[in-house]
Amino acid sequence: MGIMGTIPVYWGEAEGLDDLLSGAHPHWARAAMERDYELRPLDNLESAALAGLDLLLLAQPRALTARENVALDRWVRDGGRLLLFADPMLTGESHFPLGDRRRPQDVILLSPLLAHWGLRLEFVEDQPAEPRLVAVEGVELPLRLAGRFAREDAGNACDLAGEGALARCPIGLGRAVMLADAALLDLHDPHPAAPAALAWLVGQADPSYGDGAGNNAKSNEALIIQELTGSSEQEGPPPDVPG
User: Fold this and answer.
1) Distance from C-alpha of 146 to C-alpha of 139, rounded to nearest angstrom
2) Of 1.10.3470, 3.30.420, 3.40.50, 2.60.120, which CATH number belongs to 2-229?
């Protein structure tokens, strides 16, 4: 799995070399993904970087260059699997102040690529500011100030769900699963429903993931909880995941 984005899923919020080496402030989702994937952190999305990937996770990525847009589109059309978190108004906390380039990007800038795939990302003005759960096929997705995908053309084959926050799109031989929100990837105060939601989304993008590959959210959630807590037993609702 390739990982890139301004949300620090791979490195965590490292403030320097010592933090990187010690693993300070790790992101809970990294441990979850490492159970089933060899992770490859990326700093660009050109063809050489994408070669050999089975799945690509983009977590609130920076604006892509023209070459990266072309390479990513070609990679997906040739059979690549993409899971994209594209939040029009990021709400997650960060230790880094405004203006610090290590801080996650507040607004996603992927309009050219989304338009090429026949989608438009909108921000929904009239919505509550508090976190909420939106159910899709029995799985609860934690959202907060989420965006909404809309079709740019009638021939768009994307399946839109979750009040338009989720788009599942066949693109050539590949597939892109896109969520117009990144609240479930919050590092410091993750929602209790985040592990199950992430497992389900990964399974939606990659049919080879987990037991049921996104069709069995509870099984995938149990695997992630076990990885995070060191326990194979779970009673009651999933516990809060430590940041």
Assistant:
1) 17
2) 3.40.50
pLDDT digits (tens, 9 = 90+) for 79-91: 999 999 999 977 6
Count of CA atoms in the C-beta half-sphere (13 A) of 104: 33
**Coil, strand or helix at 177:** strand
Tell me if 197 sits within 8 A of 135, measured CB to CB.
Answer: no
Q: Where are the beta strands (DSSP E) in 86-239?
A: 119-123, 132-136, 139-143, 147-151, 159-161, 166-171, 174-179
Give the domain ranges of the chain: 2-229
**Torsion region of 172: left, alpha or beta (phi above 0 gives left; psi -120 to 50 gives alpha):** left
pLDDT in tens, 25-42: 688 999 889 999 999 999
How far is Cα 107 from Cα 207, in angstroms, rounded to an integer? Answer: 30
**Phi, psi for 57 (deg, rounded to 5):** -105, 115
Nearest to 223, CA basis, from 243, 203, 207: 203
